[in-house]
Design brief:
The structure is a homotetramer. Chain A folds into three domains: 99 residues, Butyryl-Coa Dehydrogenase, subunit A, domain 1 (Orthogonal Bundle), CATH 1.10.540.10; 110 residues, Butyryl-CoA Dehydrogenase, subunit A, domain 2, CATH 2.40.110.10; 154 residues, Butyryl-CoA Dehydrogenase, subunit A, domain 3 (Up-down Bundle), CATH 1.20.140.10. In chain A, 50% of the residues lie in helices and 14% in strands. In chain A, the strands form two sheets. Chain A has a four-stranded mixed β-sheet with strand order 1-4-5-8, covered by helices on one side. In chain A, strands 2-3-7-6 form a four-stranded antiparallel β-sheet, with no helix packed on it. By secondary structure, chain A is α+β, with helices and mostly antiparallel strands. In chain A, strand 2 and strand 3 form a beta hairpin. Chains in contact: A-B, A-C, A-D, B-C, B-D, C-D. At the A-D interface, helix 1, helix 8, helix 9, helix 10 and helix 13 of A face helix 1, helix 8, helix 9, helix 10 and helix 12 of D. Chains A, B, C, D: Homodimer.
Chain lengths: 406, 406, 406, 406
């Protein structure tokens, strides 16, 4: 396991950007949080619109976007650090125009879209004027295995006819279009069976059945996960995104950066929860003579253990980002797999410990912890469940040994 | 650690009762569950009322109640097994009239109430005609340390004047009266500082400020946790429950049985989640040739580990119940402390694993798992956080060793 | 998971026996321990012989033996409790004549031996006049899968000719005979491929190659694990033990009781290590003003957690023993599997924690902890590695669910 | 938790050095290993002497030594990587002249020794002509708390008179001198109570009582841990090392680099054990049709989890080394504390898993795993037990929060 070249040093300008983001979140966004926990997201849209405008004015819009799309053109290490800073707020990524799945959709439209697709879909999306969704996960088949995908797109003259039943289509409610993964060549090899399509959500064959009730909340607009039906959904063949049969390849492209983005967001959450844990320990008096939770050795141990764990997790993600920046995603493959499950696990442990130390307060929505506890539980599931990543990474490592490669 | 006497054998009649309960829940209650996840509890009241009537007709009302109060008069081991059976449904305890905190309130009214108190509060409560709440936990002080309690009751002629700020007063919304723990003798020794009072909720000095939003839900009626204020709340001195200064002693009394009740309820939850885990593993196809999650060794390991853990947890709770039945709660003290944190931990692990294997479905409210995940998280906090029990149990064991008692 | 019948109550006589054993170990055996850690076992034989004589005089020889063999004729629950008491000393089982593998060998000779075999082998073995060993595990094949067994016994006239390479033949050094598992019918179904044979160790075809150096020690006599060769080893056909092809069936018979025996021995070890942990915590001063490790919350937590874990483990083993006593080993199968890996894990954690709290002293052989740490590590491996038991138990449970049996 | 500057890139020359070391160990040292497990270390000395000569010829002697002492003058990051490479062999550090405690003793003699001390003790020590030991840990007091130190040095004219009872004085057997930590100013503040002295082992007041039997082995020469007595041990005042009262300050100095050295050695062990785990999984056939342990999902998961853990551990140590190199040990303090307990834990888990997968073979000394299992257990104890580091790190972090520093 060699690691003899690595440099995470970032520029002073970048450091200033990060400070700016933190200040903005603390001053302008955190005060909105309690409202966010108690009102439908849709009702917050006007206020969020104003904040987005401020972000643009500050020149911080789209940290992940190339400059030509009005973004900051950051490296992945830099974008990772921005994602971490934004992750401290559940509204951060949305306000800065780098929220999933739009960020990923922008990326693939940018790389694989036709000029017309870019004009019509990419431009307004990158500008935050519209939203999109990504319809891949199916209700009835295991997302971990692409050979099981059942939704189909059949060519019929100048059109494709799409049929399928998808869910966990994040933000379908209010989206202008969906990118949909559909089987086009059932008999092709697994990697070449499916294609991606752009489907405007006003297409009569596309239907948002419901916003799935998740952990007690159905959500609305961007903060929702839709169950959608494609029923004899006809779209012009120009809406094919990239080459036919290349759906999984394209999906693969967005995976590396998306992973860094998520893991660093989780680390932002870890940072926030850890801060809360420590502050609560310092404040919570447990005896008449003023002894606090911070005086308890078991709490001190917990703080030390989580500190060590977060530090390690953070280094591993920055390292993976650095590898992608320098050597490409393929070489960083094992690292990208490893951070997915390990950082998600770290986040769950940090949130759980922070909640626990807050006692009853932690169970309530008077702090952010209960929100993080229930909604960030998804991290060990989406983008590949822990088990899937562990199996495939373990298999790959063992094969490398069998081949004498390690 | 001697254990040379123990007999859990139960009667055939009891076994039939348990079967009856299970069948009733499966047929009559489970179909209500999705509605319960999606509608305010208050809207379900009519339907629940009908089901309660059926429970009474079957002679299964009040499994924990002595026969003189119209209950089944079970031993603690037996009641534990009933609690386990009921625990499989989030509506079980409510429907059978043994829900917290009413069950505990009934117990102490029965043991310490005056005849008048019994007539006025206990009778309708035991019959399920009214509900009650228990106001102990304070917003500003650590519940783990009774010497920190700040709410006061000051005698003024024939009345007590109560002032205090409480929360996590379960089911305050819709309750007819509250039992409230208030400091009556601030200078007394810790164990004798506080007293219990019966406070009708229509007293003008009692105010339900809000139903606390917990894990995204404020709830209503019985399924709610209130933040309540006692402001110059005057009650007649006849509303003192038990002797003045005996508040903590009385609270102590309900602890043993309450613990068994909770732990067995948690084991009912474990049983249900474990069933779902296994069934999902058997059903979820992960390859084209029909291999399921159940064919995965890692899943098999998880199933075996959780099975072993649940078995052990269950034996430990039954053992503690048996000890209380036979030797009294004082001798069973260490066992009662141990099951609190260990069984809560087991439940959290089982729920987490069941949710994980359900993937996206597990995050949604289409199954019960997301409900259990977010709301049963409280088990490691209420009735004494894990840390509190571990410290006090550990301390006690170590002291026993120091004294040569073990 | 029903558990509605269970009675662990034991007789007063039994309780007195247990006390007697404990006193004997504390007074007569513990003083030998440091010598045992520093000298070859063989050098201790004279002294151990005297102690065995005392055990016989007290009428405590062979707790697991039926009365007709000069033993105590205990139930499995009772024998389990004796095994726990003996387990506190590494010499306990040997001194009381119930050490593995002799105890198991006695059991199968008693059940399946011919009259002649009983006369010649069983009698002196049960009396402790000779020792035996059990040659099953092979150097080159995975013991977890009996279909891989390679050693063979081929009939040749009135003899069998044995060839094979075995190891972990416990106590081969100094044994009078070995029971050996050999393939007799390579083409039979897995369960019927092998047979058991009695092989006197002075047979010229039997050779003890070495006492395997395990965790730094080769050991000698009973405290050793041999690597043995069977090379054209001819034995009369009368030395077949039980029916040809029934080797695995016979092995199966000794499994249930053997498991209880081991698990309770491990619990004896847990008890001893836990005692040491608590005593050390009480004694070890860590500040000038006399604060000890016992005053540290993190240590208190550890004590509480291990206490809860040991209690649960203990109940689960007694429960399994009780099930075997009452319902037979087949019905108790899942329980027997579960205790193997869960109790072994508990023991490892308890020993590790006790060692840790002893610091440098724990690493030295000045206490028993370092001995337990290194040698009892085997518990997660012998008699089926954790992984093997978890896979098979998990598979069985999942199949039961598929069949609607649970 | 900012981390915006970090560069681990190393030179090509360094990379070649590491390759050279690995090849040397594999070809020249590994073949000695089985002998090392079975014979007293003292008997290996002649052969080891020849290998040391080869190391010197290759110019690889003393990777941690400054060039003026005949070493390689590496940075801490570089030295860390060398320590990792050497850590794969239990003989590595000794053969390259960077074994504890000599490496630390050299460091403090170099920094604080007088010219005469350097001439007499440092020179031959750095050249590997003599060995030294470090007498700090006491038999009767907790090493974690320096205020408890009891051994004394009292000035008497031109001499100091030393009295004390120490143990875990590594390599005392065969050492030419000891550096001893003794209380010189009992009433001074904790940090200024003790001083360091150079004590030749042929001083009549110095006695090696025994080589402590650790995990079954007393060891000899360098591979031993001594219990030593200082009894009216008179040494000239010139043998004071550094200033009187500065003993702990000096000890502090060697802590940072020593920590990196140890943690990277542990990572070398992790690498070796992980390799063995993977190779065993690939080789071990578990079914007739050739399925191996590597085909088992549970093993794949374990491989993936340990891979992720080792990667993270490695990054955290290199990061700490880089911080010491660039910002000094004081600023890196929290990182240095965190890696101690987290990497020791990782190593224990990796070794345990590797041993487990080797089954019976893993318990034997036919591989290195049993050696690592028993002797490297000390890592969680020496240089400060896990608990000590967790408490002090946790306390420090919490205090920083209280001061608003984080």
């Amino acid at each position: 396991m060699p690691l003899f070249r690595m440099d995470f040093t970032i520029s002073e300008k970048m450091q200033m950007t990060l400070d700016l983001i933190r200040t903005f979140l603390a001053k302008e966004v955190d005060p909105l949080e309690q409202t966010f926990f108690r009102k439908p997201f849709r009702e917050l849209l006007p206020e969020l619109g104003l904040l987005r405008a401020k972000v643009k004015q500050m020149g911080l819009w789209g940290p992940q976007l190339p400059e030509e799309l009005g973004g900051m053109g950051l490296s992945l290490v830099e974008h990772g650090l921005v994602s971490e800073a934004l992750g401290r707020s559940p509204l951060g990524h949305y306000l800065f125009g780098c929220q999933a799945p739009d960020a990923g959709n922008i990326e693939i439209l940018h790389m694989f879209g036709t000029e017309e697709q870019k004009e019509r879909y990419l431009k307004p999306l990158a500008a935050g004027e519209i939203r999109s969704c990504f319809a891949m996960t199916e209700v009835n088949t295991a997302g971990s295995n692409p050979t099981l995908l059942e939704s189909t797109a059949v060519k019929d003259g100048d059109e494709y006819v799409l049929n399928g039943h998808k869910w966990y289509t994040t933000g379908a409610d209010g989206a202008s279009f969906s990118i949909a993964m559909m089987v086009t060549n059932p008999k092709a090899s697994p990697a070449l069976r499916a294609s991606m399509f752009i489907v405007p959500t006003d297409n009569p064959g596309f239907q948002l059945m419901r916003n799935i009730q998740i952990m007690g909340e159905s959500g609305s607009d961007y903060f929702s996960h839709g169950e959608v039906m494609f029923q004899s959904c006809r779209i012009p063949k120009e809406n094919l995104l990239g080459r036919e049969g290349h759906g999984f390849r394209i999906a693969q492209e967005r995976l590396g950066p998306g992973r860094i983005h998520h893991c660093m967001r989780w680390l932002g959450i870890c940072g926030r929860a850890f801060d809360m844990l420590c502050e609560r320990a310092n404040e919570r008096v447990i005896t008449l003579d003023g002894r606090t939770l911070a005086d308890n050795d078991a709490i001190q141990h917990k703080v030390a253990e989580l500190y060590a764990e977060i530090q390690q997790a953070r280094l591993s993600v920055l390292h993976a980002a650095w590898m992608i920046d320098n050597d490409g995603a393929t070489k960083a493959r094992d690292h990208i797999a490893a951070i997915k499950f390990s950082v998600a696990g770290t986040m769950q442990r940090v949130i759980d410990a922070a909640l626990q130390i807050h006692g009853g307060l932690g169970m309530s929505d008077d702090t952010i912890l209960a929100y993080l506890y229930r909604h960030e539980r998804g991290a060990r599931i989406y983008d590949g469940a822990d088990e899937v990543h562990k199996s495939s990474l373990g298999k790959r490592i063992l094969k490398d040994y069998a081949k004498g490669k390690r």
